[in-house]
Amino acid sequence: MQENRKREIRIEADGFREKCKISRFGIMDLFKDCERMGYKLIRYPLGETADLGFAMIKDGDTVIFTNSSCRFSREIFTLAHEIGHVLLHMCGESPYIDDAITISGRSTDATEQEANYFAACLLMPSDEVDRFFDTRLTDLSDRSLSAMDIARMMSEFNVSFDMALNRLENLGKIDANEHQRLDNEKNEHRVGKLLQSVGGNAKLNMPGNVTDIPYEYINYVIYNYNHSAIPLETLEKALKCYHLNIEDISDRLVVHEVGEDDDLSDMIGGLED
User: Fold this and answer.
1) What is the pTM of this model?
2) Cα–Cα–Cα angle for 185, 187, 191, nearest 5°?
3) 215-230 pLDDT per residue, tens
């Protein structure tokens, strides 16, 4: 990636971050910030092996989906990655769909690499990383960076252990050998225990399994049911997300025969059409 393009991406990331609520170092709740800015967020537990997220324009709305079956820290990074697609690449209604390859940085696609760089700059901007080292790791001159230090960084920036290591190496804070040493230390002690030992946010290392769908999408579900695009079973599953049942919306339904079973995962996938 050319340096001038990196600079453009950093400017976009800084501009978005300025609109977010920040704790001591990291963004407090990226999901709430996106909703406040008008993004339509969908969080749904599709399963650990399913796609991690997508971004698209639907009826003029910016829609971002994240799979809440993965670790919360990864879901946050997925959201940041999708925001990158929205701000850097989105034109028309063609969606960007992301999986473990694109989110992990193994994709050679330029747009995916740019979205990952945007996410890293948004969640861990270089000046805040410098400030963390300067104010929280004052004794590093007498010792090496430890896995517990990375666990503290995880909680402060709301990122995963692996993302923190990748960002630190990218910024020149550690080299490849230190990266490997810290990764080995992580595997020896386990991230959950490291977070617990530093009083960090243990939720970062666990799946959220959250179901969160914008309320206005109930109209989309009802429309699809009334036009025989989804069966009654899917409608009922969708209503549960809103704590509603068939009786609550009976006056808005068209009576027709029940079709074959489907599930909410297929309905969400249908947003790509």
Assistant:
1) 0.85
2) 95
3) 777 887 888 788 887 7
